[in-house]
């Protein structure tokens, strides 16, 4: 039995018991859509200092500088389309149906899981496709391609900021609480394309393991989680996840998944 087949067998067994199949994703799942990862060769944080562009202090110091960075990121996210890795997760949701919860907890801010069709996406770090006001309650995803001026301002006169979580900021409370609950309830946690270095997201697989879940990691590089995972699939998400879906299809009674992702 290959490791992919073993992972699929674990998922099928847990799904048959109605146990949640929970995904936790990071930048690696979007790498093959052309959105760079943060760390590693060519990573965003090797080109930009996060202190200056991804902290509230850096933003206050020079809002136009932080916005110029986020505009670049937003352009990349808007131009990107879901790859077979994102689509595979959406397929799992459809294939397992309503009796098996299949939430996708993501650290990504690119909106690609939603674009792929995943319906229950928990955005831990917000979205580059939204803005919020630094003073009032205004929040919007109805944004122009380019702002007329940087930094953009709210109708109330205050500065707008990207609706993302910067270093040192709290995660949206209801979202992290729900993510924790899914980690505790999971039969399987698929951990895909994350270096598992940024808290509190990095602790979710550990919570899941302690609560008895099987953890399946998809990542071409080893991480701190690899030795703890029940199955590690060392390869890119856009290859590994369709292979996993295909093997899972073989387990599902009476139906075979169509895994043509194009
Ligand atoms: P990282 O850039 O830290 O890690 C990306 C991971 O993806 C690495 O472990 C790579 O080995 C892996 N990877 C690369 N290509 C892949 C592929 N094709 N398929 C699967 N995996 C691949 O990104 P995150 O773990 O998401 O936060 O980073 C976590 C947070 O740190 C981000 O959400 C962001 C960042 O600072 C904020 O901005 C708040």
Bin the helical content: 25-40%
What is the distance, rounded to the nearest whole angstrom, between the alpha carbons of the first and last residues? 28 Å
| CATH architecture call of the largest domain | 3-Layer(aba) Sandwich
Poorly predicted segments: 256-262
Pattern of helices and strands: HEHHHHHHEHEEEEHEHEEH
| Cross-sheet strand order for the largest sheet | 3-2-1-7-8-9
| Mean pLDDT, all residues | 95
What oligomeric state best describes the polypeptide chains here? single chain
Strand content: 5-15%
Global Rg? 19 Å
What is the CATH first-level class name of the largest domain? Alpha Beta
Number of domains: 2
- The CATH superfamily of the largest domain bears the name TPP-binding domain
- The fold-level CATH name of the largest domain is Rossmann fold
Instruction: Quickly count the helices.
Output: 11
> Structural class of the helices, strands and pairings?
alpha/beta
Largest sheet: 6 strands, parallel
Shape: elongated
The total strand number stands at 9
Ligand names: 2'-O-acetyl adenosine-5-diphosphoribose
Relevant terms:
six-stranded parallel β-sheet; SIR2/SIRT2 'Small Domain'; alpha/beta; three-stranded antiparallel β-sheet; Rossmann fold; 9 strands; disordered C terminus; binds 2'-O-acetyl adenosine-5-diphosphoribose; 262 residues
Written account of the structure:
The protein has helices at 3-16, 28-31, 44-47, 50-53, 56-61, 63-79, 84-96, 112-116, 173-185, 204-210, 237-251; strands spanning 21-25, 104-106, 121-123, 126-133, 139-140, 160-164, 188-192, 214-218, 231-233. By secondary structure, the protein is α/β, with parallel strands linked by helices. The chain has two domains: 1-35 and 82-125 and 172-262, 3-Layer(aba) Sandwich (Rossmann fold); 38-79 and 130-164, SIR2/SIRT2 'Small Domain'. The strands form two sheets. The chain has a six-stranded parallel beta sheet with strand order 3-2-1-7-8-9, sandwiched between helices. Strands 5-4-6 form a three-stranded antiparallel beta sheet. Strand 2 (104-106), helix 8 (112-116) and strand 3 (121-123) form a beta-alpha-beta unit. The longest helix is centred in the first third of the chain and has 17 residues, at 63-79. Residues 256-262 have low confidence and may be disordered. Residues 26-29, 31-32, 37-40, 43, 54, 107, 125, 165, 193-195, 197-198, 218-221, 223, 236-237 line the site of 2'-O-acetyl adenosine-5-diphosphoribose. 2'-O-acetyl adenosine-5-diphosphoribose binds at residues 26-29, 31-32, 37-40, 43, 54, 107, 125, 165, 193-195, 197-198, 218-221, 223, 236-237.
